[in-house]
Structures are given as structure tokens and as C-alpha cells.
Amino acid sequence: MYNKIMLINGPNLNMLGIRQPEIYGTVTLADIEKGLTLKAKELGFELECFQSNSEGAIIDAIQSGFKRVDGIILNAGAYTHYSYAIRDAIASVMLPVMEVHLSDIHKREEFRRISVIEPVCKRQICGLGEKGYYIALEDLIENYVEKD
Ligand code: DQA
What is the pLDDT of residues 89-138, one digit of tens each? Predict the structure, then answer.
């Protein structure tokens, strides 16, 4: 165990708080990162936070977790729906990955209903707003991080 978890947020999630508050709420990414860092610390883990609008940078971040962190919490934003490259990166690193979405992707536009990363993630949590990140963190540590 490395006692380290990575939080990765994808495109446009840096705009949380400003971006479509009726869908995503008023919480900012900085608020989420701060709160989740504290929660992780309580549970004995360091949280490494990363956000990028670029597919390649997200893939680099996922790969950087190999043999370095115990798991990843990922909101891939719109890449969720079509990035086979991010899906392949998740499958490559053999780390438990929790898929999070603030909104309920199953109750919005048709194109959001498909997640191409879902089959390679441990669990998909959506529609619970920021709470979803906390549930993902607790479940990841309790049930999916390899203890040794
Ligand atoms: C999202 C849902 C995606 O469909 C969208 O493209 C996002 C955010 C969510 O957190 O609800 O950028 O991942």
C-alpha cells in the first residue's frame, strides 16, 4: 500500500460553481478537492488532485498512478462518453478506478447515457452531486484498495 489516492477531474470541471449551476450545483472544484483531501487524511490516505481539459494529460495522470497510488477517483467529464483511450489507460494500470459524475448521466441527453469507461471501473456513482466523490472515496478505501 502506498496510502495514496488520486482524484482526477476532466474537461470543464475546473468551471464548477460557474458552469450550469442548475445541473452541477454551486460547489467549486477547489471546495471538492479541499473537502476530499481532509476526508482522505481522516482515513489515513494522501489525496493527489489533478484536473485537465486534455485527454492526453488525463491519460498521463492515470499512467502515473501505476505502482505509485492505491486507486483513482475519476470524473472524466464528456470524455466518459467516447474516450476509448482513457478506457485503455484505466485497463493498463490495473488500479481500482471509481467513476464519478455530479449529474445523473442516465437522465440527461441520449449521448450521456453511454459510459465507455464503465466496464473498466469498479463502480459508477452519479447523480449525487459532490457527495458522490465522498462515497467513491470511502467505498474505494474500504472495498477495493489492496491491503498489505
Ligand atoms: C459529468 C457528466 C458529463 O456528461 C459531462 O460532460 C461533464 C460532467 C458530471 O459530472 O455530471 O462534464 O461528468
Answer: 999 999 999 999 999 999 999 999 999 999 999 999 999 999 999 999 99
Active site residue 133: no
- Residue 127 CA to ligand 1 centre (angstroms): 10
For the purposes of burial, counting CB atoms within 10 Å of the CB of 37, is it exposed (0-12), middle (13-18) or buried (19 or more)? Answer: middle
Q: Is the CATH code 3.40.50.300 the one for domain 4-144?
A: no
- For ligand 1, residues with CB inside 6 Å are 12, 75, 77-78, 80, 101-103, 105, 112
Please state the domain extents for the chain: 4-144
Q: What CA–CA distance (Å, rounded) separates 148 from 146?
A: 7
